Fold each of these.
Amino acid sequence: MERTRSYSSGFWVLLLVTTLAAPVLSEAGVGLFNARLKQIVTSSTLKWANLKNEAMENYVIGAITESGEPIYLCRTRHEGDMLIGQLRPDYNSCAVSGTKSYTIFEVMENIENASLIIWTPWYKFNSKPSGAVAVDSSLDTTFVGRIKANIGYSHNIGRINYESTVGELISFDEENNELVENNGEILIEVEPVSYKLDNVELDLHTQHVRQSDPQVFEERLLRNDDDVAATVTTEIEYKFNYTLSWGHGHGIAIGLNTTIEMSDGTQFPQIEWANPYKEEKKELYTLQIFLEPGTACNVSFRGNTTDRDVQYTAKLTTYYKDNNARSRHIRGERIENTVEVEAVYGEIYYMSNNTLVPTTTTTTTTTTTTTTTTTVLPPLPPSVEKNDIGMIMDSNSILEDSSEDMVKGPPEKEDINRSVVGGLGSHPNSGFKIRVTSIALLIPFALLL
Ligand SMILES: *[C@@H]1O[C@H](CO)[C@@H](O)[C@H](O)[C@H]1NC(C)=O
Ligand SMILES: *[C@@H]1O[C@H](CO)[C@@H](O)[C@H](O)[C@H]1NC(C)=O
Ligand SMILES: *[C@@H]1O[C@H](CO)[C@@H](O)[C@H](O)[C@H]1NC(C)=O
Ligand SMILES: *[C@@H]1O[C@H](CO)[C@@H](O)[C@H](O)[C@H]1NC(C)=O
Ligand SMILES: *[C@@H]1O[C@H](CO)[C@@H](O)[C@H](O)[C@H]1NC(C)=O
Ligand SMILES: *[C@@H]1O[C@H](CO)[C@@H](O)[C@H](O)[C@H]1NC(C)=O
Ligand SMILES: *[C@@H]1O[C@H](CO)[C@@H](O)[C@H](O)[C@H]1NC(C)=O
């Protein structure tokens, strides 16, 4: 329920309005009026921040001086009330009237310049507009406004107070006259509707991989009970929970649809920002080994939970209702949780007497079947590579080409046939019966997220 509600509230995280205003000097999200919910919600892209010289370029400008210098929006407590004020050149105090200014104050920061804020015309009979910036998050009656000035600064900054449905704009001029106006401008944060992350590039130097110890998911026995040599295959179906997170923050509103595309064009599933993509994946793994008649091999199928963290850079485009869009570059962190599996093949043994198949004496046969077998071999376990080569591929020297891929995917059936034929050192067209035993297993196993 809460989830649904926060989605319908658009991009702002619901703020459960606290009874006390945030004390000055503790940084706080800026409150915005949400007309649909008729309450104040917290902006993810605007905050009330302590003054930092290096962040000034992202402070929200309310007016400019005669000489073109910016006047920033600030707020401070004055006689118990939170008031909107002006941070003027030389930028060390917040003026709330012509004569009164405070050195303890907060300034309005547009985080990462991510917010689209506009001054929009206001008239006292207008209802409170959605996105209006509240001076004090605990009050839904006082908003940030301004009015064009005739002389001096470009605008007089002030607060728009609503008594019931009618508002008034209260500001002051340079002569410290309090001005009460019926119209002016109100500050609004425009609500984004979705995001796109594209041109995503992973910064692989920053990658960290954490793996748990491998766990055995299944032990299998591959056996050849037939009277001819055969490639025995078994498919194992396994499931695991896969998650992919693209991070949070960056002034991107939680829960908004975000599409993701790598710089090479690869698309990732759409996410709602700050919520990881989750999927219960189901995959097949093929166990496969060539066995002489009467022999068998133990295989253990095992896997790791694997977490990969890597930083990325991307172009972030924010879309707004009226098809407006703004782009900027961000650096984020991607976290992938997955499972990596492998099959560990034991040594081949005779089923009749449980002794290992000898491994050194079978490499002597020479044949002419060099053929074109530079294709993939059946996956052989790295640990028993040498042994099986002798037996299967006695006449071919193709192993170097393919040893890397061995444990990976299943080769094409065609290759199986070929390797088997070659391995037997016999005529490719002889009437050998090649039997491929295929057993599909379903092995559900639970994994950590
Ligand atoms: C903030 O973004 C706007 C719109 O993309 C751009 O015009 C402006 O120059 C940016 N300001 C800073 C300080 O980067
Ligand atoms: C987000 O994407 C989903 C699936 O594409 C769509 O059904 C939904 O309407 C989108 N939400 C918004 C707010 O655009
Ligand atoms: C194969 O597995 C069985 C049953 O676990 C075991 O008794 C046997 O020793 C194993 N053989 C080899 C060669 O690993
Ligand atoms: C599992 O993790 C261990 C230790 O990090 C590693 O040696 C092994 O190769 C991993 N196994 C798989 C299937 O990734
Ligand atoms: C085990 O049996 C196989 C065939 O059944 C035979 O070739 C091999 O010599 C036997 N090994 C031993 C040690 O008896
Ligand atoms: C494998 O060989 C058998 C017998 O020669 C043949 O019937 C089958 O079609 C071959 N399979 C593939 C995938 O080529
Ligand atoms: C995936 O996660 C869900 C929810 O946590 C859980 O019910 C399910 O059993 C998990 N699946 C696997 C294969 O671990």
Note: The pocket of 2-acetamido-2-deoxy-beta-D-glucopyranose (ligand 1) is lined by residues 57-58, 113, 326 (CB under 6 Å).
Amino acid sequence: MHRVSSIICAVVLVVAAASLKAYAFPMPQLGKQCMLNYCMGTFATFPPRGGRRVPSPTIQLRTNAQRLADGLGPKPPMRRTQQRRGTPVRRQAEVSATPITPSPFVTRCGIMTIMDGDGEPVGYIGRSSFDESGLLLINETLSDAATACFTAERGASIAQSVSLSFTDLTTEGPIDFPLLALIQGMNNTDSNLTPLSAQYLTFGGAVGPAAPPGSLPEYTNNTVSFATGVERTVLTSVWTINLNSGSLTAQWTNEDATQPPTHIFAVDGILHASADPVRFSINATVTIDPVTLLFIAF
Ligand SMILES: *[C@@H]1O[C@H](CO)[C@@H](O)[C@H](O)[C@H]1NC(C)=O
Ligand SMILES: *[C@@H]1O[C@H](CO)[C@@H](O)[C@H](O)[C@H]1NC(C)=O
Ligand SMILES: *[C@@H]1O[C@H](CO)[C@@H](O)[C@H](O)[C@H]1NC(C)=O
Ligand SMILES: *[C@@H]1O[C@H](CO)[C@@H](O)[C@H](O)[C@H]1NC(C)=O
């Protein structure tokens, strides 16, 4: 049983490594900052456009996904049962036991990388990436990348309209809002996005449980409302993850249940979405940076 799961694990890691290779990740600059005997892992900053830096082999990353994102191999597998010397004891009665039907669902966890319009990584969704308005910033520090988990059908290659649950947020405030959410824009007059409209969404955290896929936007406590005191509507079961490519996309639902195009972009490093980013950009007189998200599963 354990051998089977480590084989599955190894296969998953190889597949993840292969898909990472396909993205030809530039290596973040790595360094180690130590105080007394405590080293804070990596403090990576992405190279300026065009530049490429060489990774240091001495970094300590928390998870295999972070190691893969950094071009390293996975950590050696942990042995979960003690191997004893002497005669191996055969397990008994397993054949005659009631067969256990495996759950039709599996939970997958990973980190989220943000790629720019050229497909180059520019940062991560971090454990501490919320600003004072409860908005989600792109964080350049790989070792700060937040872990998020979702549940999908066993064997599925696409996880459709799932919610993503953070497991390790560190900032007081956002830690109470563990679901990655799309939140109604502060200037929106309603919860609808349409092409030719300047209305927009921001990324943030929301309280659980997640409303089911296709739910209409409704007020749920979230990082933006908590930070600003302004009630904003939220959707959480909006993420679709292609488990082969890692691509992570969003789908908003309007008040009349129509599903508008939901393009993701950044404004000064803050994640937004809209059905018409150009119209948003003109109305708000800001420059937008189109981005795509990549889910790197463990
Ligand atoms: C990125 O993460 C680091 C390490 O946790 C933190 O100090 C920094 O404030 C974060 N930056 C942003 C823009 O959130
Ligand atoms: C469009 O711009 C105007 C003027 O700045 C602003 O008042 C309005 O809230 C903006 N609309 C949206 C949807 O952001
Ligand atoms: C939102 O959540 C925060 C943090 O848990 C809580 O203090 C606050 O009372 C909540 N607000 C509402 C309107 O539920
Ligand atoms: C929101 O409205 C304010 C006030 O009109 C305006 O200054 C700001 O640029 C608007 N923001 C966006 C994103 O449209």
Note: The pocket of 2-acetamido-2-deoxy-beta-D-glucopyranose (ligand 3) is lined by residues 176, 221, 226 (CB under 6 Å).
Amino acid sequence: MTLTLVSCFLVALFGVLYCEAELERFEHGAKPDGSLSFLVIGDWGRRGDYNQSEVALQMGIIGEKLDIDFIISTGDNFYDKGLTGVDDPAFHESFSDVYTAPSLQKQWYIVLGNHDYRGNVEAQLSPILTEKDSRWLCLRNFILNAGPEMAEFIFVDTTPMVDKYFTDPEDQVYDWRGISPRKNYLKNVLEEVESALRESTAKWKIVVGHHTIKSASTHGNTYELNVHLLPILEMGLVGQKLDIDYVISTGDNFYEDGLTGVHDPAFNESFSSIYTSPSLQKQWYHVLGNHDYRGDVKAQLSHILRQKDKRWLCLRSFILESEFVEFFFVDTTPFVDKYFTDPGKHTYDWRGVYPREVYLSNLLKDVDAALKKSTATWKIVVGHHTIKSAGHHGVTEELVKQLVPILEDNSVDMYINGHDHCLEHIIDSTSQIHYFTSGGGSKAWNSDVHWWDPEELKLWYDGQGFMSMQMTQKKAHIRFYDVFGKVLHAWNLTKEMHSAI
Ligand SMILES: *[C@@H]1O[C@H](CO)[C@@H](O)[C@H](O)[C@H]1NC(C)=O
Ligand SMILES: *[C@@H]1O[C@H](CO)[C@@H](O)[C@H](O)[C@H]1NC(C)=O
Ligand SMILES: *[C@@H]1O[C@H](CO)[C@@H](O)[C@H](O)[C@H]1NC(C)=O
């Protein structure tokens, strides 16, 4: 009897990860009773104006009550343009002379905001300021171990992550010394954050940055952080807990327009040099998404990519046998009429797909034959496009008409897809096939939901996240997680139950 556990980890969109470099670390002990308390303040330095002094007064009172251990500043320390230099009087006028309450005479741990980058950044990072006021500690990226094992704070320099400060600075001049080449700087920061999170053994892990990730206010969500930082919070924290056997990618491997060729640097930049975490050094099984079809498809299918990175395996349609489970990867993009009849300004690479009718009918025949031949306990079909979805793209009619009858005929257990940028679990009430959408790898929050029968819709989540599956012969345990690794939805499927139907 086999008791092998298959765990697969689904990522629908590409994020970022890991390396060896080390962030500077600081230690801050807890109180004798093991507790810690601190205040957090951001966007403050205005020489006392705009109620800065009033806020400081209240911080002093609360700081006293809570007997705080330290203070965190989330940046924009000096308006409107940071400091002009280490001797800028704003340092006293906006910091030392404002936060004068006895309870605020503690260590301050400070990151930079975008306004700080409009002045002399090196001044704020300089030890000369710490000599002027011993509370001051400002670095670009660093770690604070508090407790010391209790809480780990990872301070992240988020300003250089935001594109518009570089591409559209308007009349602002930013001090990017120490940042360029920007790409390398960001890559290193993200790698360091990922490795710090992965290695941390602290009970609480807290990331501090200046820019919003989720915000209902003026600036809203920061797109770049959602794309680059959130995947690290997801994968770094949860990925290591499952012993992953392989990774499945449900397509749209390279945005916006696939690869230009086998030597497109995007292969390295968006795959090899990104998914470097040890837990992701497994085989990756890829299908193609519609965005991949907008580039050179043959490049993604080429064995040359496999020579460049042996984890890479991308085929149009293929079968993966894994003891008691068989995965059928199906190339769904050529099924969708509108890419042919109404491609808009996009050009699709249909080499190898024409004549389309023949391609599709052969593919359907092959899938049907393979499913019929399969003796696996679990049969799982994977494709990029949705079949049942309450999300933005909704139901793909072409697949409902052509693929679903084959799935139903052959008692397929699950269909797993991406395409819609959300997480969903829909059970078809007649066939009992489970439809899983795992498309929340990065850009989400479409607020675009269509009505779906609540009897069938077991999960609808519009934010980022991912799905995991652990399987044995008899049981499949499926979980959906949000970006913090919190389980949003869990579902067990058992084989006895299935064969009884
Ligand atoms: C200062 O705070 C008071 C009380 O909230 C508010 O009425 C006033 O508008 C604030 N002043 C400024 C400049 O924001
Ligand atoms: C991949 O990119 C990294 C930096 O992003 C670079 O160090 C490495 O040399 C590149 N590798 C290849 C094969 O181009
Ligand atoms: C699934 O089964 C596991 C035991 O294998 C159990 O701990 C868990 O609570 C079950 N989850 C659900 C949602 O039924």
Note: The longest strand covers residues 475-482.
Amino acid sequence: MIFSPFVFLALLSLTSAHFSIEYPYWRGSSFAEGTSQWIFPCANVTETADPTNRTAWSPTSGSLRLHVGHHWALTYVNIGLGPNATNFNISLVDHFNQTGNGTFCLKETGKSKLVAGLKAAGLEGEAVEGVQATLQVVQISTTGGALYNCADITFNSTAALLADSECANSTDVGGITVVNANEAANTTGTPPSSSTASSTAATSSGAAVGIGVAGGGIGGILVAVLGAGMAVL
Ligand SMILES: *[C@@H]1O[C@H](CO)[C@@H](O)[C@H](O)[C@H]1NC(C)=O
Ligand SMILES: *[C@@H]1O[C@H](CO)[C@@H](O)[C@H](O)[C@H]1NC(C)=O
Ligand SMILES: *[C@@H]1O[C@H](CO)[C@@H](O)[C@H](O)[C@H]1NC(C)=O
Ligand SMILES: *[C@@H]1O[C@H](CO)[C@@H](O)[C@H](O)[C@H]1NC(C)=O
Ligand SMILES: *[C@@H]1O[C@H](CO)[C@@H](O)[C@H](O)[C@H]1NC(C)=O
Ligand SMILES: *[C@@H]1O[C@H](CO)[C@@H](O)[C@H](O)[C@H]1NC(C)=O
Ligand SMILES: *[C@@H]1O[C@H](CO)[C@@H](O)[C@H](O)[C@H]1NC(C)=O
Ligand SMILES: *[C@@H]1O[C@H](CO)[C@@H](O)[C@H](O)[C@H]1NC(C)=O
Ligand SMILES: *[C@@H]1O[C@H](CO)[C@@H](O)[C@H](O)[C@H]1NC(C)=O
């Protein structure tokens, strides 16, 4: 098939705006034929069939490294329990504004929320060992459309976090609190207070959000930007 230069450029910009999960190893490439990041819940990528081929992730939380292509995107990280999860009802990271392109890494993703979510599902202590689950990452950008990617994991308390050398945000990559539309005008010059844990990751556009820390002080949603993308969540 021969693409005109125009179509090629359009595809190029579409692709660069997508994202990938680098760790834990994703289900499979969502850039491959027959897949699409626009498809809920996991980009039409089939779940990992071989149980030994899932990344071991600690039930007290693990690392998540993304390669992101947007200038910014509202980002969510959820977990669904089971070998072929369809119900991503544990929210590790509520919407935050992931800014910048390149590598984005959370060392210990939504720690307290994971522990609480597992507990709610009756999974504590030994019971959680070996339980299969799927991490779902959702990014919603300027157009309001949602992009999905998933990574299949097995809970294992011996699983280690990524080392600092493997888990660092690119320069100018970080996250900021989502602001309410009616407060936006007031936030200029008074960035939201940053958590001590992530203050070094503050971007030039504002203070860092304490993602992965309980609460996080994340504000409201800029409804106008979200559009139809929210409906599927
Ligand atoms: C494990 O997963 C990777 C990535 O999806 C794949 O390339 C590989 O073939 C799988 N290995 C097995 C044994 O299923
Ligand atoms: C999604 O996957 C199914 C099963 O592999 C396939 O039939 C379908 O065409 C895929 N959808 C898209 C939009 O690629
Ligand atoms: C996994 O879930 C998907 C979506 O619900 C379904 O199409 C598929 O058949 C399931 N696979 C298995 C092995 O159950
Ligand atoms: C980020 O975006 C800029 C401008 O679009 C581009 O020049 C740069 O290569 C991108 N960086 C990465 C790591 O994708
Ligand atoms: C989430 O779904 C799992 C089953 O997939 C269920 O066991 C658990 O109770 C649910 N948790 C909440 C908080 O609804
Ligand atoms: C957890 O990981 C260790 C080290 O890879 C392995 O020996 C053990 O069997 C795993 N436990 C479960 C329940 O999968
Ligand atoms: C990356 O940025 C986010 C948002 O500011 C922050 O929570 C996280 O801790 C940073 N990652 C690392 C490895 O510092
Ligand atoms: C996210 O941050 C970028 C860069 O600061 C900003 O342009 C964008 O409006 C923010 N989006 C939301 C929904 O807060
Ligand atoms: C914006 O700031 C002004 C002055 O501090 C204050 O009076 C006003 O209530 C603020 N508006 C909003 C929506 O927070």
Note: The first helix runs from residue 5 to 16.
